[in-house]
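<instruction>
Derive structure tokens from the sequence
<entry> Chain with its tokenised backbone below:
===
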Amino acid sequence: PEAEAPPAREAAVAEAPASERAETPSAPAPQPAVAGPTGRIKASPVARRLAQEFGLELTTIRGTGPGGRIKKEDVERAAEEARAAPAPAPQPAAPAAEVRPFTRIQKIVAQRITAAKQQVPHIYVTVEVDMDRAVALREELNALGDSKVSFDDIVVRAAAVALRNFPRANVSYTEEGIRQHAEVNVGVAVALPDGLVVPVVRNADQKTLTQIAAEKRALVQKARENRLSMDDLTGATFSVSNMGMYGVDEFAAVINPPEAAILAVGAIAQKPVVRDGQVTVGHRMRVTLSADHRVLNGADAAQFLQELRRLLEKPLYLGF
């Protein structure tokens, strides 16, 4: 009998497990443009030329070439995407700036300040004043209830007495020489919504502290009601500008010609101080004298401030 034929091999080969199958190669994922060794973005010459024509930055194009190299197709794709992107929403136009005409007072102040800074050589000297006794005095006076006294009133009175005691600061520059004023008239800067005015307390060295307080209140009220006369605004031989109520520690003011000096007053602040070898809390105030260097030198300014500080630190000398 014929031998039995061996079993035939299956024509179909069993499918290999998925883990053993070779994956089908796919196109490389786009990579961000990278710089070559020289720091230059990798891109073909054609791609560079096309990017320039389309107005595209190479750094914004993702390259699909080896190592992220940018090809022509990458540039064309980026240009197409840029064309398809929605146009940015138009930004609303900025509101037109408003120009407010100067008031008469603002025009005058601007002209005088400009002339003062251009024509008057300023020198600035600053000192710190111990205001502990002045603070206590003001509290006692106001507790009486007869007339309220402000720190500004105390400074104006102290400045007037200091000018009387040190008349070299109560002067003006003229082409003929230094004019020595016989009166001590202190201007007080008052800020208004439409400008700055400086009404004058006349013969302030001859008035008591409470008299100055009452007169200054009346002048400020007239300024706010636009009732100041030319007599109220002229004749000052010295000025005081106080910004302490705004929390300003220190500043330098512009001289108001023909005066030779102006005192800038800062806020009274509590701070650590050394007294008799012990650290304690005290009230301190910084004042800066702006002086016309043509008639007052640094030593003159320093001596005036020494006298002013002496009076503020011993306010009983001011008279009530």
Observations:
- The CA atoms of residues 133 and 313 lie 6 Å apart.
